[in-house]
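User: Thanks for the earlier help. One more: Aminopeptidase P family protein. Can you show the sequence and predicted structure together?

Assistant: Of course, both are below.
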Amino acid sequence: MNNRLTLFKQWLDTSEIPFAFVTSTENVFHLSGFHSDPHERLLALAIFPHAEPILICPKMEAPEAKNAGWEYEIIGYTDIENPWEMIQKAVDGRNIRATKIAIEKEHLNVERYEKIQNHFDNPTLVSAEEKLRQLRMIKDEQELAIIREACKLADYAIEIGVNEIKEGKTEMDVLAAIEYELKRKGINEMAFSTMVLTGKNAASPHGTPGLTKIQKGDLVLFDLGVVYEGYCSDITRTVAYYDVNDKQKEIYDTVLQAQLAAIEASKPGALCKDLDLAARNYITAKGYGEYFTHRLGHGLGISVHEYPSLTSTNELPLQEGMVYTIEPGIYVPEIAGVRIEDDIYVTADGCEILTHYPKTLQIIK
């Protein structure tokens, strides 16, 4: 049994919870090694403190689950079968008194909530989220190795994008080139919608790429990540095309120094808020505080946004094994938008930067 599943079963035991029903694609993958997006169909793990777990998935995916290394019972159901009756029978067969069930409250929909209540005689439902977040927050060596590869591909994607910059090309032209070359390397999924934003568009932190053409004097912002073997990367770089004015350079330098200050603060025992404030206080001192409008960063792993959240109020201490982004930005409407983002791994005595595309201001000609 893998260590993640063992730790979760131990939590169920010490918490006196006889049954957990895990339903999100991400957490099923984390605990089982099997990644599936069954769309409207049910995907779940039934986990017990002292009995073997059960994977529930569409029958057509059962061979893939076995190939992914799942060694325990699989309830594979067809589109004309009722998986809930099959689950109830399997749980009853293990002599489990399902008086209390741990679920993902943020994920389970009302219809499935009602199915659980009906098939298990109105059990008390408790949240499994916090424990699952804790388990996913600390990466093991295998996870870290995969994330490193995802970060290498993110660096490569930025390189492609920068090389595509030409006057008259649109944001979508550059975006298409990035994703085309990644697909040629076997990457079939981005971690989120790729962003290529030029000129004034870059002043929108979550702008939408379109047919805006790149012009001389523009800052061009790239924000992208890939999914590699189930894990995400996330990188942002901002470059200048042909020319940069004093205001743009001042904003860029401010963001870069703020980001470096937050990276310097990244070490075990530091609080999440320490990192955010290291960057935020620097940006505020330079007169741009009102233009840094989001948190410093977020955890990274199976999901592109997971724990921890690097905000100015989060007092969670950093621990060895955490992976997160550091991505301060300044967004001045109608003037300029700059964000610089790296993926960070907390080591025993500091941190390792996992993304390596250069951060010194590049002027592309």
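User: Great, one quick takeaway?

Assistant: The chain has a mean pLDDT of 96.
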